[in-house]
């Protein structure tokens, strides 16, 4: 029997690989001779680097870069190993939040007028130096609203004001943008492919744009939101004017209204135009990168999971991505969650056959986090025991001996 174990991390307690290890340990107590294939996955957000590094035998790379407020920060990215679907193509996995993230900025210092995405561009440049020519970029959790201007500057694009001076950092400086000179863009970008994990359809500007929807959580007041939105609209016009038809770059036409362009404070728009980036659902990128489809083809069972399974799980989170892959091959899927919300049964209509909670008794959140590994192992053992019991009962009904 082949069992594919493909969970996400349990936030604040277990990495995706640790969850997979715990599930295997629990199931192995009942099915010791089964063939277990562990594939840690993620949905393109937090934990994606670690999941892909673990799944492919890759490496995490530490690098000091420019933080969102212009101060040096210790960031990281991942380089996938030989077990990934990309084969011999060196693939870098970058979480924007690691270099340009909101979580590392104290609430009283959050200011999207000044926050820059330069550090994300520095991670891309460093990965290019290491030979990466394929990139997976998660753009959630950013502190920025600069349309990717800082990232572009780190890669050699010049954003100039009317006097020919380089723009300063942040979304506030975009009001002074007069001309874009992309001649200095790192030439290696032309030979690379960029896959952008984007699970929102917000445009760059307007009432559903980057500034209006995501600006307030980054510290923007209503007045700042209006200013940032106007600045991004101006930026989009200059991009369209200077990049439309510019050899080696995508056309900038319609970038302000493009679905998903507002992701990451608008960095998605810059990635599409200047890096030929492709916006795709995060879980789709990750499951493809780790070769989940090939692993599931001949599996007897697929087990997935995440920290909390609820009605929002069906909106593109990891268990749903795993279930979609399994459905293509007619495989049954079981999900184990750190906890189950009252609406968790919504997943049954989307390819998950059964869900189980890891926590089996009343406890505090702190207690649940501390005992997560034991809880997941116990839940997995009970799942396997139920499967074994079902097989015995089925065999008994048929008048034959139970398997094993």
Regions with little confidence, pLDDT below 50 for 5+ residues: 400-404
CATH topology of the largest domain: Glycerate kinase, domain 2
Mean pLDDT across the residues is 92
Determine the N-to-C terminus distance.
Answer: 11 Å
Report the CATH superfamily of the largest domain: Glycerate kinase, domain 2
Structural class: alpha/beta
Q: Strand portion, in percent? A: 15-25%
The largest sheet, given as strand count, sense and whether it forms a barrel, is: 6 strands, mixed
| Helix-strand string | EHEHEEEHHEHEEEHHHEHHEHEEHH
| Structure summary, number of beta strands | 13
> Reading side by side through the largest sheet, how are the strands ordered?
3-4-5-6-9-10
Shape: elongated
How big is the Rg? 23 Å
Q: Would you state the CATH class of the largest domain?
A: Alpha Beta
Write the CATH architecture name of the largest domain: Alpha-Beta Complex
Number of helices: 13
How many domains make up the 3D coordinates? Answer: 2
Share in helix: 25-40%
Please give a structural write-up:
Belongs to the glycerate kinase type-1 family. The chain is of the alpha/beta class and 404 residues long. Helix content is 34%, strand content 17%. It contains 13 helices and 13 strands. It has helices at 16-28, 48-56, 96-100, 118-129, 149-154, 210-214, 222-243, 267-275, 282-289, 292-296, 318-328, 365-370, 372-397, and strands at residues 2-5, 35-38, 59-66, 72-79, 91-95, 134-138, 158-160, 179-181, 193-197, 278-280, 301-309, 333-340, 354-357. Helix 11 (318-328) links the parallel strand 11 and strand 12 (333-340).
